User: What shape does this take?
Amino acid sequence: MDKIKAGVVGATGYAGSEICRLLFSHPQAEVAAISSVSFEGMALSQVYPAYLGLQDMVCGTQEEVVEKCDVIFAALPHGLSQELAAECDRLGKCFIDMGADFRLEDEDAYKEWYGGEYTDKALHEKAVYGLPEFFREKIRGQKLIANPGCYTTAAPLALGPALEQGLIETAGIVCDCKSGVTGAGRKPVQSNHYPELNESFTAYKVASHRHTPEIEQTLSKLCGQDVKVTFVPHLLPINRGILATCYGRLKEGVTEEQLWQAYHARYDGEFFVRLLEKGQVPNVKNVHYTNFCDVSLFVDGRTGTFIALSAIDNMGKGAAGQAVQNMNLSFGLEETAGLVLLPPAF
Assistant: This one.
């Protein structure tokens, strides 16, 4: 079988370059073309010297990526993917969007949180949401996949089974999440400047982050009811990783044992979700450079509070790793292909 030819639009951003890194070791896919507006004509290894001699492909144009490739990963800011997705759809090519253009099913929500509109409503109806642990069967064989965001992967994987089984209340849920600075993208801004970030830890976009409706959409689908969350993200002075600490109110009579049973039932067959032993807590360093999500559960019996924690690499399971996982599902490959990576121990 010939290798799948993969292309990355926006290959010099953090997520785009990480897709190229992962595909370098993929047994059934290879990077065939890449593009970058900022670095057109330059080799990826000139932008990221760590890739020297391994991934020296030169950044071409977006049109070349579409022409040469079977699957196109679009690592672009929101608002820039819809036209490209339409062209890939016309040509029958797989399109995996790393941005937000196809994540929200409600156009009004997209207008409210992103200030845009759907240019082709029929195209949006073809899109599937690419969180495999919950929506795997809908993703298989599909050619327009909305790759979830990082927070919107970590928080639902922490809370999903509890809501799915009706073990916690749908009101009053709090998602308290911390992210490494790569989540803000490669373009320098004041808050990413070393003197501002180092020795610092702060919340940002409190109760106003654009991932809020996406988290709510996933959780609502899982439990069949409207779910609203209070979401507060924080910026950590580290490169990679997300730690999500999520709180919910236990329903009357629910036991800790029922919660563990629900999580084991949902995740025991999932390669990329590692349910930790009772009393253990996730640590972002234990998922670095991988597609794993570590999950743990606690109950505060004194207050009737359920606490679910998850850790992911925001560039792995929160972006590029999950995108490759979705590509594998789309093309009928082994879901773990190219993603079985042992995390560094220190």
